[in-house]
Amino acid sequence: MLQLHAGRVLEDRRFLFCITLAAALLAFLGPLFAYDLWWHLKAGGLILSSGAVPRTDPFSFTAAGRPWTYHSWLSGLALTGVWRAGGTTGLIGLRAVLIAGSLMVGWVAARKRGVGAGLASVLVLAACLQLKLRALARPYLFSFVLFIAFALILQSCAASPLERALEQARECRRRFKRLAAESCFLWGAGGRLILLPLLTVLWANLHAGFISGILLIGAFGVGEMVSLWVRRGGRPYGGALLREPDGARFRAMFLAGVLCLPASLLTPYGPGTLLYPFRLLEGVKLVKQVQEWQPMPFGMAFAVFWGLLALGGIILVRSVYFSRKAGRLGDEIGPVVTDLLLMCGFAFLAVQAVRHMAWFLLLVPSVFGWHLAVSRRCFPQAPGEAEGGERKRYAYVAILLALVVGALPFARGGLPRTGLARDRFPVKACDYIEAKGLNYRLYNSYEWGGYLIWRLWPEMQVFIDGRCLVYGDEIIGQALQVEQGGEGWEQVLDDRGVEMFLVRYRKKDASHLFAGGRWRCVYWDDVAVIGLRDDLFKLREADLPEFALSNPVVFEQSLERERPAWIRMEVGAVIDRDPDCWTALAFHARCLVRMAEKAPDARGVALLTARGNAKKARDLQEGHYLPWLALYEVTTAQGDEKLAAEAAQKLEQLRPPVASPD
User: 597 lies in which domain range?
Assistant: First the structure.
């Protein structure tokens, strides 16, 4: 009896809803790692202090004064308000609530289409698992909520019986002579489509993703057109579509879509907001160089997306086959066409650019869930026992997925961390710049522009950040030219008057920056390296150390050519400044190994110290090859074959491409 009661609880829709929501919330707790978040915080603060939205770029010296359409200005205000109220913890909570809330609206949409609670939870959690890669605290999270809200409203309208609209039309004809039938779908029991233009006003001021809402309306409208054509047996239906009661739902959708266009203009920038996505894609060809605008890669990181896409194709084909076999395809042709347009259209966008992946994933529960159940709809004589067994299996899979998505990460790494992901941002480098007063004209890595605006503006302006349309191909191309060491990169820095650079040296080989002797390395850590122009360094030589030999960009060459004791002195200064700098600890260990080779009397003590440094470096950063390389060299010198073999195996797994500076 107890087992039966427990089984019913596990299958209960309220229980499944709660565990799915809890897993989704837990999945998106963790440090902030969105690069563009930070300039939104600075822009939001600027709006609050000035009382006006910016129209030209204030943050960079390369594009200063250029027109800037800050289409996410309302999101900037919201993010800034949350930041001021709750700091990074508040932003992490907002991120979790927005993404989990969007997924759970997708769960509700699936349930409203008749999808079982267990199956809806399985599909939501699968989408959740893939969305973790795009869990960026940025304005586009507001688009998640509004996108799935649009889909739910349109789905409810499409599923409402046409007879209800005709009945309401007869009742309301005296009051609404022209919109009698349409009123049922616009603001009556058949739908709430009038909400879509109102939501568009909000959406257009939060994020440019409102374009996807208009695409949703188009897909549902086409489905309704096809449905009407089939109902009329393929006969001409233009009159019915435009005037007769049968076309009321289409006319209501069309009217809502038309109203959404002027609604999107109700922003501080007017038509500029509506045109922004098109201007970006047409006017900035180098936008494809940005990671989130690149095509969806094949690989384990995106395996869930590709799996759902392949499975979805099978499900949709199977659904059409069984519907046709059961003689129900004519009745279901509208939803089928809509679903095909939605999944094919948004899957195509996702394959073209990673940033569009969310639209596809948010629709998966309601679309794929509905089509998975098609055989039961087509053949209602299926035994009830089989249906109950299927519900139970989905419920158990949902519970298992909830544990994997929500609990497993914390079982491995402990409670979720707050704050920002410090290994992705130049936090300590900015501390050093502020402490030393290095207020020089700066070249910076593209990804870090937003964080540098937040940390250093208005005292310092950036070379570039994530606002692609502001910079255009000219400045983006120059930033790439310097980053990649393309011909003429030094001239770019001279023309722009750059006096200092702060770069993410592990991203690409940055050795060209120091090759000519014009730049001095005055700081480095696990993440960043700072170079100061030679003439300016000579003026600051008394209070600025130089790291010419230990500079991680050229460390390997130094280790081959220079005395390890000299390199060790520089590395020791880095460790004194930051005892947890795992790169410095690994370098220190490798220097000691070479010193031990030339000093047999001190060999034992040197290798023992080196082993301690290498182990500490490994414990601090087990996922990078440098600590394992140091440990391999130390244990090999000590004759510890077992640990040396383990380190060698890890090196094979972690060794970067030949072009890497590390």
Answer: 564-662
